[in-house]
Amino acid sequence: RNGVKGESPKIDPLPPVSLDELDVPKPTENGGYSHTSASRAKIGAANKGKTPWNKGQKRSDEVKARIAAGVRARNREKFLQMLKDVGLTEKEYEEKKKEERRVKDAERRSRRTENGGYRPTDETKAKISRILKEKHARGEIKPRKIDPSKVRRGFTHSDETKQKISEALRKRWSVDAEYRARMTQKMKTTYSKEDVRKKVSATLKKKWQDPEFREQMLEKM
Predict the structure, then answer these.
(1) Nearest CA to 114 among 172, 53, 70?
(2) CA pair distance 219, 214, nearest whole angstrom
């Protein structure tokens, strides 16, 4: 027995519980009360197996128009309340949305490619990368099996194809500032590695032993 003789034992008070957490009828905005889990179960059991009174009935044009008008009125009311909350007039809101669309369209046009597509944003690239990594982790994407017989070993482009590739890259380098900055940073990162610099140096030394290459480079100098 707790406490002193003649005194009632102390009882810890129950934690406060909000009305939303209780399964009791709650007042609604229209002046009624909400159903409890028990009342909903009773209604469901009573209606089980019965055919709804409006099954197969089609709404008349008058009823459809009345419903549409009611929906538009409610949406208009919500829209005006939103404008009131953000402190904007309807005209100011329309101008703001118009400016946001203009900026978004301009940004999208800047990412348009010569072939009519669009370069993905950094956010889109990160999202694609995250999804692919998750799929790889779950085993949904398996590594592709490459047939060694179909690998084009020793394949080289023709001079015409090389010229086309070179012109396309030069053009993109001159007009696409984002591509130019990305490739510049990539080259700085790549050539800062010691093993890469050694490979480049060895390759150039080997090329300088070729009389034709040496003659071309001397003419450019």
Answers:
(1) 172
(2) 9
